[in-house]
User: What shape does this take?
Amino acid sequence: MVRFLQIKFFTCSYQNDLGVPPKTLVKNIKGRKDIMANRYRNERIEIKLTKEEKEIFKKKLELSKLKSMGHFIRKCVLEAPIFVIDMNEFRKIQTFIGRNANNLNQIAKRVNTTGVIYREDIEDLKKENDDISREMIKIQNILARKYI
Assistant: This one.
């Protein structure tokens, strides 16, 4: 007696790559949602990345040596500090330093041409240096309060 081996070929339009018809897939997806509802972590987030961003992400994931991508992302999101820097304090210092440098250049130019330096010019420079020092101390205090 001769037996024939029956082989069925399926196309991807009718069935997925695993040979499962689409109706079965829908049932499985619905079943998975029920399972997801009972999980501790049942919320999903999806992001889009460029190829370059994805490569950077993969490299950092490998360097972290964490168990899974989910663990890596949770660690980054939940444990990484967020720094918000008020740049106004730095702009004030930049303004004071610019004024101080300008005044110093004017004094140096006058001294080089006339050979005379005025006490008021020296006092102005000292005052501007004190203003810069005060602003630096403010920034140090702000940083110490926020990040220590």
Q: What stands out?
A: The CA atoms of residues 83 and 146 lie 9 Å apart. The helical segments are 22-37, 51-64, 69-79, 88-114, 119-147.
